[in-house]
Every structure is written in structure tokens, then in C-alpha cells.
Design a protein that fits this description.
By secondary structure, the protein is mainly α. Helix 2 runs antiparallel to helix 3 and helix 3 crosses helix 4. The longest helix is centred in the last third of the chain and has 20 residues.
Length: 190
Amino acid sequence: MAKKKDFHLNEIELSQIREAIRNDKRPKVAQRATAVHMLHQEQRVANVAQMMAVSTITIYKWFDRFREGGVDGLANQPKGRPKRKADDKYLALLAETVDQDPSALGYSFAIWTVERLRDHLEKETGVHLHVNYLSVLMKQQGFVYRRPKHDLTALQDPAAREYAEELIDELKKRHLKTPKSSSSLWTKRS
């Protein structure tokens, strides 16, 4: 058999409940405080629930919320989306970071990916965002994703490159000087 819950309040809790019933401007808090007070007066949970037009589970929840958070625990909890994690400072740092070369910040890679950018910003701000959300933020801020162009000019020998360009120019000039053939691959049907 389940252990019977103790609804008795100590003197401090009882004075808080009475104060909330009399003076709290939030109607829901006064209603819930009344229910807690009735439980303290040894009213049955089912009777209190019927008088308050709620379920017995709700009465138990109200009492537990009072025990955990006092009178303020009886107030309605905020609904809707949580506050935005990426505030203006975060967005400013995002824009500043995207404009910088990762190697200038001490990284061994040369291209920002969303994951790398997220990890860097988390290290700097302590704010963890999901990669998809960061992608949405970047799109809202006007950033677009482009595939990097792989450029090997830094690895090329400048002298060899210059020689190859001169050779190509000479071959193009020779090609222009050669006479064009009068034969064609296209013929008429006979």
C-alpha cells in the first residue's frame, strides 16, 4: 500500500500560504494557495480537487510545486520558446569570425565549416547551438554557403609555371599558322 502523503505545513509555510491567499495579485497563485491550505487542514485530495474543478493529480502537483518553490512555485511557468541564445554579441562575433582566416586564429584548417564555426563560437562565448540552427542564423545574417575553390598556386613552382604558360602561348600561335584542311567529316547521302 502506498505511503500517505504528509500535507502538514510548518509555521513559516503556513504564514506564506495565508499571505498569498489574502494579498497575492496573481489569481492562479491565490487559488493554488487555497488548495494547499485546504490540504493542510486535512481535507481529502479528491474533495479539494472537486472544489477547485481540477484533477487529483493537479492538486498533488500544486502541493509539490509549493514545497519546491514556495509561493512563487505556484505561479504559472512561462510558456513558448526559450530566450534566444544567440544574442547581438554572438551575432557580431559570428560575422567577425567568418571574415577571418581560421589560421589567423591558430587553427590548422583553412576553411570554416558550420561545425568548426560552431565549436569556435562555443569556445569563445560558452553558448552551444545546434549546427542546423547556426546554419539558419547564418542565412538570416546574409551569409551564403559556397564550395571552396581548390587553388594549388601556392604549391606551384613560379619558374615552371611561367615556362608552361610561354609554351602554351607558343603552341597556340603555331596552331593559328597551320593551314586549315578542306576536308570535312560531313557528307551528303548519295
